[in-house]
Amino acid sequence: MRSHYCGQLEKSLVDQQVTLCGWVNKRRDLGGLIFIDMRDRTGLVQVVFDPDQAALFETANKLRQEFCVRLKGTVRARPESQVNANMATGAVEVMADELEILSRSEPLPIDFNQHVSEEARLRFRYLDLRRPNMNHNLQFRARVTSAVRRFMDDAGFLDIETPMLTRATPEGARDYLVPSRTHKGKFFALPQSPQLFKQLLMMSGFDRYYQIVKCFRDEDLRADRQPEFTQIDIETSFMTADQVMAVTEQMVRKLFNELLEVDLGDFPQMSWHEAMRRFGSDKPDLRNPLELVDVADLLKDVEFKVFAGPANDPKGRVAALKVPGKAGDISRKNIDEYTNFVGIYGAKGLAWLKVNDLAAGRDGIQSPVLKFIPDDALQGILERTEAADGDIIFFGADNATVVAEAMGALRLKVGEEHGFVSDEWRPLWVVDFPMFEEHDGELHAIHHPFTAPVGVTPEELKANPAETLSNAYDMVLNGVEVGGGSVRIHDNAMQQAVFEILGIEKEEAQEKFGFLLEALKYGTPPHAGLAFGLDRLVMLMVGASSIREVIAFPKTTTAACVLTDAPGLANPDALQELGVAVKVAEEANDND
Amino acid sequence: MRSHYCGQLEKSLVDQQVTLCGWVNKRRDLGGLIFIDMRDRTGLVQVVFDPDQAALFETANKLRQEFCVRLKGTVRARPESQVNANMATGAVEVMADELEILSRSEPLPIDFNQHVSEEARLRFRYLDLRRPNMNHNLQFRARVTSAVRRFMDDAGFLDIETPMLTRATPEGARDYLVPSRTHKGKFFALPQSPQLFKQLLMMSGFDRYYQIVKCFRDEDLRADRQPEFTQIDIETSFMTADQVMAVTEQMVRKLFNELLEVDLGDFPQMSWHEAMRRFGSDKPDLRNPLELVDVADLLKDVEFKVFAGPANDPKGRVAALKVPGKAGDISRKNIDEYTNFVGIYGAKGLAWLKVNDLAAGRDGIQSPVLKFIPDDALQGILERTEAADGDIIFFGADNATVVAEAMGALRLKVGEEHGFVSDEWRPLWVVDFPMFEEHDGELHAIHHPFTAPVGVTPEELKANPAETLSNAYDMVLNGVEVGGGSVRIHDNAMQQAVFEILGIEKEEAQEKFGFLLEALKYGTPPHAGLAFGLDRLVMLMVGASSIREVIAFPKTTTAACVLTDAPGLANPDALQELGVAVKVAEEANDND
Fold this sequence. Notes:
2 copies of one chain form a homodimer.
Chain A: E1 17-30, E2 33-40, E3 43-49, H1 54-60, E4 68-77, E5 92-103, H2 118-123, H3 125-128, H4 132-154, E6 158-159, E7 177-179, E8 187-189, H5 195-203, E9 208-216, E10 228-237, H6 241-260, E11 269-271, H7 272-279, E12 292-294, H8 305-312, E13 316-323, H9 332-344, E14 351-355, E15 365-366, H10 375-384, E16 392-399, H11 400-417, E17 427-431, E18 436-439, E19 442-445, H12 458-463, E20 472-477, E21 480-487, H13 492-501, H14 506-519, E22 527-533, H15 534-542, H16 572-578, E23 580-582, H17 586-590
Parallel strand pairs in A: 3-5, 6-9, 11-17
Antiparallel strand pairs in A: 1-2, 1-4, 2-3, 4-5, 7-8, 9-10, 10-22, 12-13, 13-16, 14-15, 14-16, 17-20, 18-19, 20-21, 21-22
């Protein structure tokens, strides 16, 4: 029906007749002529209707915003003075010869070229997606998936589909359940990830697997979470952690090269312990140069309990965060605000120190806690942080987790607010994670319970689980964890040991993972893999602020679709057939 | 870890050292040597261990079936006399230098190289998938999806994901329901297809969309159905039915060319009415040359009510199926069996006639109903069916639906049993479907209620729905419907008219499809699309007998996964949080 897309028109096509299909983005009547900006997925082009062609002009006169039309016309160069440099096709316009109105539009409920509420955008998503940047985002996403697939195909990875109707697993977050009709009273779960299936595929000998696949988590939604999200899921046999990192790093570098013309360079590696120590985070944003500096050893002997307590506690930590040159910019009011901010992460206060005049000794230092810091400690802190006149130093002193979380978050906030964050791409690998972390006296797997430990036997692991490192790796880009993976356990005894440490009883393990434990008996190859969060990766690449901007039909923060009004009430007969009943207090429904 | 795959080894690599990773497919001890067939996803290669290397030989001596190993060795040519022509790598073998046992295997619960029960195959699927033809099937499937995606990408189609958690729609089959936690008492449905979302994407201006996507139907499973199945889903704007057929036909031809080296040629088109008339099916298998021949006009005046009744009924039909040269092969016992067979489709009997000697007139004809057929009718039937000596002719006489179904099925069965089905690829397009079909006095949409009628206004459609044709098209290959699609309604009034004809009240339409009707108001482009059943397409291409053979982890015919034991009992706390309760009589659970 068309010969060209609007966005393709350019000077080389002058005098050529073209047929376009698209929408009236805007209409202007000027000097007796009718001008429209015509839009399709590639962009806009200006079309001119001349009153000399009476019938054509009469039809054109009916055009309103978002009418869907087909038109024939001749491309012509705009006069120098009328070239529109803000428009990709601004050097040309189309002189219309024929016009067909394919479909009319009522006045729009939202003007998608203006700012409208998130709710309205989602309710009229089909209009919101006409917005050029949304259209661009989804076209870009399609280019990302296409490039990923070509890379993986060329690297010998097989795209194999895993089931959506699966068995519930206790993988941290909550499952979406699906009642079964043929097995009344029983439920499927939607997968949180294809983890076990991709491991089984390695046991089947497929060697290299990938899939771009929907995963599901029924949990409270944050700004960058959706109940259904998409993973680039990868698993390999006979490859080491370094080899998996190499091939996936190559893929991401290729993506950035091809789609953004950015060379990410070689990704540095950093141990989890270093990341926590220097940045208070397992996904440090390296665009931000501010760093935490440990000073506990300097403060062990001070009388001030706020410092001395954590400094002498093996699980405690005292860290300094120097913000260079900002002593003058950061007021008492700012500091109060930062104190409240770190309170969110459990910090009980925020000590600080301004370096006004280093040459003046103690007199050149301003701090409410100055009196508690002896000279040698003060000197040690100033030297270790390489403090200079005009710097301000914040202190976190608490258990190591609180210090990392609070000071890590403060680092990001101050860095952002005071212009320390550079405009570049800073990828890295975080490696050498501990196998387990302790919450409330219990050990939890940091990655998942199928992650292999480094260099221990099952007995050694059981003897010292807290100190054992896992063979896991996370890819971090600009402070966002875009991917994570690990070498998997390929040995039945090791898998049982991990379950044991996690407090999963033998019976429970058998009940939940019996098929995996069984499968591990029959020549399981060493295998390792990784999964990328596609939504977040695309969000980063297009510079969007939420994954909702790169998903065609996302859910709201209450996990609803306001466009189709889902979820909805189920047909009572259907529920009866499924053998389930709704049990909700009346008022619960009214709250929706 | 490896330098080559097993299946890659060939004569050009002789004298080269290679490193292989894989499984011990078989071990043989012969003449003091140990031979193993080593397997990976590419195939097998023979490895030889020499007792001269004592340590190596000792390790090799531990090898059992399905041990997972890595080995280094040197490729050497086998002597002419020992070349194995049945093995792709049969001209070479590997003389082992180093061997590492990566993982041991207990004796296998199933021998996947032998025939085992379907239940056992699914329970130990990870072993069953090691079976070379299963491994091949899934690798082939990955090549199909890869080729489809490259074709679609190159043709400007955008891969856009649509939601899995959607609103229930009444699209014929039953929805899988998913209880919502944040909106207790309400449910999502898993999509039966992304139909409405892909139409919305056209309204958003994406122009060309495709997706390889999971769809769900909670219905009784037949041999070629699965609760979750995969669609190649396509939608376009500004394209006619012919253009959609052209581009999708081109895609399928390319697939067959690239992956099977088969040229399917141009696909013929056949109207639905012709297909029903000649083959009694809307998905005729053109490899089978047998055809139905209508003879009602010849039998209107006979006394025999079995023929005369349907012959004189506008909704009746009398059709003859000639089976050339098989009068002698088809016994009375066979005919009794066929009579039972057509009974499944509602036929009350199966009249037949054998042509023993055409020259002998009535005496040369053998038939229990001969006495009911006057000379002129008999002559007419023999002429119209072009009967010759040795032919047998079956008759179906009933309402048109029963005749088509019964005689269409008989055509396939007889054709199969008596060697009429050729070994070739016979694609076609079936077009010009009626919009609606009548069941129990009610009209139902043959495709779905968003399918556009051909050449009528909404008023004309309402005046004569039963006679109106739809702008729909099905792609049929060797009697299997591999794809189907249509031009969609892009006009609010037409969509409302179709809902009205289908007995969907205005309120109900608003409640269920309000968002679609609303969306149709704002410059909806003309759009059309198609969906392929990927599982069936791959099944046909690899020559498998069931889609379970081309799905990694299929469900059983009772929609269960015997590998993971899904569905399972849900956590009572989880159900409580979801606001649902199980309501099943005790015995129902015991039946599982």
